[in-house]
Each structure stands twice: as structure tokens, then as C-alpha cells.
């Protein structure tokens, strides 16, 4: 056929040539667009159909849903008065919340006080101010304190003297010292004449007649006159007995008025000492001793001096003196010869390391047996010794490291293995003592293999923490 015949197929039209024996070249096509997948819904690729023959040139294929792309939603820190939010997550494509943010309470103010200043007599002061050291909000504002005014006190004057002027009483402020009422001058009084008694003459010294002077200032108005000396009056002077080292004296005479010697006393020889023994004392480790000596039993004087005996010095064994039990300050802690081979001592680092052979650490009693000295440990004998336990010897503190015991409870459990695994993954940042417990081979590193060894040990699948 020479004519084209229009044919409608599936809502679109294509032409069928009159000559049905000729093959379609599919040059006239229609494309059904692709549908992009979403986070939760599937999509499909495009579809191509020949408009001439209706053949599907390229069929659409399903495209799976993409799934959510999780991103962090930053929280915000709480302030003194406003609540905060924790971090959360959401899908960066569709915005769906995956991990909701949680509210954190407001922190509240941190109060600090700025000191005020006291009011003075003439200047105002102010009270303390209280505000928040974080946000700066003023909680209690400063208030003005009125000036106090002067506190009036008396300023004592001084009496006028015979020759010098005086002053009246005045007033001033007892706080700041300002003068309120000035003092006035008082004229000098002039002398007041009084009698000056004379003195009788003595055996060898002349006397004086009465005179006059001013009773206020003491100036002489009428001078005294001299009286001749009287001569001595003789009396007995008793002697004294001789002592061990001092001579004695016979009786003599002197003047009873002036004491001058008229008949001299004669010397009596000393008697000499009476010697007795003075017991010595034995020397100790730290204190010197004394030999026996002698002294006089009458006067106590030393005749034969005691000689010093040097201190004996300590005899230390295992850091303790066998004589007086004193501690050797230079002694370093040592393990006994037959100590547990799973115990090691580092005197430089002041640590004792225990590698347990069972799921429990040693007891306090077992730890004490490892040393040839008396250590001070704040545990009962039957108590387990957990990681981080402190004890002292000679006032030096040591720390016990229990390998595997990261929980510091004296036990090796699966929880310790989990904790070591978190440390190996750098999810936790342990302190030095906990890190030392986790580092089973003491190589300075914490690895997942050490967590595995602890887990096997806790499950009794291995008899050693080192695998």
C-alpha cells in the first residue's frame, strides 16, 4: 500500500507504513523519564519506546531506596539562666531526626563578691556587690553608705609649770584626728617655795643645814650649809666558818654607824672536799653515755669529771635496728627470697606489680608476707588488694598495680576486659594507675589483644593473663 494508516496504541500514535514487510528503524522514539530514589522509597531508570512500532527499546529498571545519610546536629551549652541541648543526628537529605537532642538544665549563677569600702567621717562608702562570675549579671547592687561624721573625744591639756606655759583641754575626732576645739595657752605659774631638810653629819662625812626650794620644779631658793663629821662608833663583826674550798674568818670590830673596819678579821683555812662516787650511764644507739665520776658530798663540786662514751650506733637488719627497733632511713624495700614470683618491686617508681594467677588478687596478709619488713597497709588481712592500693614503709608511699584489675575491686572479670578494649579503641582516657593495670605486658601500650587475654582469663579459658 502506498498510503500511511494512522493507528492509536496505548495513548500515543505511531504510523504503520503501507508496506508491512519493511523493518522498523526505531528512529521515532519516546522517553519516559527516570524516577530518582529517596532515602526510604525505590526509584527506576528511564524507559524508551518506539513511536513507530511500539517496541520497548530500553525498559526501566528499579533503583533501591538510598537510606538516610546521618549527620551531626550540634547542641548548645547551657548558660547560667538558659537551658542547653545535647548533640543529635539527622538525615542530611530528607531532614528526618535520627537521634533527638536532649535538654540540659541551666547551670545557675556562680556568685562572687566585690568588697565595698567603709564610710569615713567625711566621705561616703558603699556596700559589697555580688555578681555572677560567668555571665556578669549583678545579683546584689552596691549601695551607698552615708559619711559617719566625726566622733568627738577629749584632748587633754597640760598644766602650766613654774616657768613654762600650759594648755587647756580641747577636742578632736577619734577616728580621723581632725581638731574640733583648739587648745588655749595657760600662763606659767611661778615658783612655790618649800623647805629642804638638811642631813646629820656621819662618822666621816659632813652634814647639811635646812634650805628651801620650789615644790613644783625643784629649783634651789635658799642654799644648805655644811655640818662637820662626827667620828666612828665601834661594834663587833661576827666571823664565819670555813667550807670545803673557802676559808673562814675570825670575829672583828667595825663602826656601827658607817661600817668601817676597826679590828680586821683573821682567815681560817678551807676544810677540803669529801669525795663520793657519781654513777655514769650506758650509751645507747643514738645517745652518748658517761663513765663514773666523783664529787664532794658537802658542796657538790666535781672532783673526777665523767667522760663521754660515744653512741653505739644502730644495728640494722631488714631496715630495723635489732637493739632499739628504730627504722633505717636509707633502707629500700625488698622482697623476701621466697616471694611469690608473680610479684615484682620497682623501688625507683615506688610500685609493686601483681600478676594474678586466679580471678582474684592476693589478700592484704599475702601481700605483707612478700616483704622482709613491716609495711603499713590500711586493709584487713583477709581483704583483697585492689589495683591502686597505697601502703607505706619508712614514710615512703608505694602503689600496688594489679594487672587486669581496671575496676580496682581486686577481681579480674569480663567488665575489666571490656574496659581495656575501650581504652585500646581510645574511647576512654584512663589515669596512670588504671593504664598500668590494663597494660598486661608493660610495653607502654594498651591493645585489643590484652582485652582478649583478660576475657579468656576471667572465663578460665587461660591460666595466665599473658595468654
Task: Tell me what the structure shows.
This protein is mainly beta. The protein has a five-stranded mixed sheet, with helices on one face. It has a three-stranded antiparallel sheet with strand order 3-5-6, with no helix packed on it. A three-stranded antiparallel sheet has the order 8-10-11, with no helix packed on it. Helix 2 (414-424) packs antiparallel against helix 4. The longest helix has 11 residues, at 414-424. Mean pLDDT is 89; it is low at 1-21.
What percent of residues are in strands? 25-35%
Share in helix: under 10%
The major sheet is characterized as:
5 strands, mixed
Intertermini distance: 92 Å
- Largest sheet, order of strands side by side? 40-41-44-43-42
The total beta strand count reads 44
- Specify the number of helices: 4
What would you report as the Rg, rounded to the nearest angstrom? 57 Å
Shape descriptor reads elongated
Q: Provide the residue-averaged pLDDT.
A: 89
The parts where pLDDT drops under 50 for at least 5 residues are: 1-21
What structural class do you assign from the helix and strand content?
mainly beta
List keywords for this structure.
467 residues, mainly beta, 4 helices, five-stranded mixed beta sheet
Briefly, what is this?
The model is unreliable at 1-21 (pLDDT under 50).
